[in-house]
Design a protein that fits this description.
- There is one protein chain.
- The chain is mainly β.
- The chain contains no helices and 11 strands.
């Protein structure tokens, strides 16, 4: 069992920046990859970014590549999402996710509650 807590969401003007944080906790678990998904109103959750714990290999959705940066803190089992040059279409609830074993990028074992990001034009 893993608990994930996100923070850092808020309201920002187009072109601005935000940094999201997520910390994982539990009695005993392994971490293969942590990352972020987002869900806009009326849409399904979509993959945003992920990072492996072993080598720090990153993956990004095409829509955010070059603007968002994912990073990790292995000692804390925490992941961060730096978001620059934000666009109104980035508006969504952002969810932290963890994989406890190797599996596909679109899969997660545990989810956080989500944090709202709103980008105004």
């Amino acid at each position: 069992q893993v608990q994930l807590v996100e923070s850092g969401g808020g309201l920002v003007q187009a072109g601005g920046s935000l940094r999201l944080s997520c910390a994982a906790s539990g009695r005993s678990f392994s971490t293969y990859r942590m990352g972020w998904f987002r869900q806009a109103p009326g849409k399904e959750r979509e993959f945003v970014a992920a990072i492996t714990w072993s080598r720090g290999t990153t993956s990004y959705a095409d829509s955010v590549k070059g603007r968002f940066t994912i990073s990790r803190d292995g000692a804390k089992t925490a992941v961060y999402l730096g978001m620059n040059s934000l666009k109104p279409e980035d508006t969504a609830v952002y969810y932290c996710a963890i994989q406890t074993r190797p599996r596909g990028l679109n899969e997660a074992d545990y989810w956080g509650q989500g944090t709202q990001v709103t980008v105004s034009s």
